Amino acid sequence: MSTDMKPTPVPSAFEVRDLFESLLGREIEWTATSVIVDPIDGATVGAYVNDLGNIGAIVAVDVPLTAWAGSAIALLPHVGAETTIKSGLVTPAQFDNMTEILNIAASMFNKPGTQHLKLHSTYAPRETLPPDVQKWALAPAGRLDGKLAIQGYGGGRVSVVVAY
User: Fold this and answer.
1) Across the chain, what does the average pLDDT equal?
2) Predicted pLDDT at 164
3) What's the per-residue H, E or C state across the chain?
4) Considering 1, 47, 142, 147, which has the largest number of Cβ atoms within 10 A of its Cβ?
5) Do residues 57 and 162 make contact, with C-beta atoms less than 8 angstroms apart?
């Protein structure tokens, strides 16, 4: 990162809610929480890198939000998301759909004067994370944690972390 560049800001709750609302075409309710989405408990994790390949941000989405958002974006029936939540096993379609949401979520990090970040990799719930991704997923600072409720579907938790 050039010394002239500003640090990547942590997206606001409004930006996260607005991203999901625009992608899903449904009202989204945001509730702030202090509970971190821990990948060990099961989460879809997106790792964003800068042009040098260094981790710049992480987004972790728990299994219920992966199931609901991954179903809502494709207008899949509720029964698939409910089955996923009961079993804890995300379907390939739900994971692929969440990966697309996480890819578009890179727009939350790219602001004028900041380093360019892009989605580098996505990890399925309970997949072993590389140490640098794991480290940032649980970092205590530079983060936003909340719950999203999707109108007509369900909700779950999301954690957004900017690596400093």
Assistant:
1) 94
2) 78
3) CCCCCECCCCCCHHHHHHHHHHHHCCCEEEEECCCCCCHHHCEEEEEEECCCCCEEEEEEEEHHHHHHHHHHCCCCCHHHHHHHHHHCCCCHHHHHHHHHHHHHHHHHCCCCCECCCEEEEEECCCCCCCHHHHHHHCCCCCEEEEEEEECCCCEEEEEEEECC
4) 47
5) yes
- pTM for this prediction: 0.94
Q: Does pLDDT of 1 surpass 70?
A: no
Place of tokens 């992966």: 66
Residue holding tokens 């981790």? 55
Phi and psi at 59, nearest 5°, equal -125, 125
- Cα 106 to Cα 24: distance, rounded to the nearest angstrom: 16
Distance between CA atoms of residues 27 and 152, nearest Å: 9
The first and second tokens of residue 119, run together, are: 């989605």
Q: What is the tens place of the pLDDT at every residue in 68-119?
A: 999 999 999 999 999 999 999 999 999 999 999 999 999 999 999 999 999 9
Q: Select from 61, 92, 89, 60 the least CA-distant residue to 74.
A: 92
Which two tokens mark 61? 């989405």
Task: Identify whether the C-beta of residue 124 lies closer than 8 Å to the C-beta of residue 97.
Answer: no
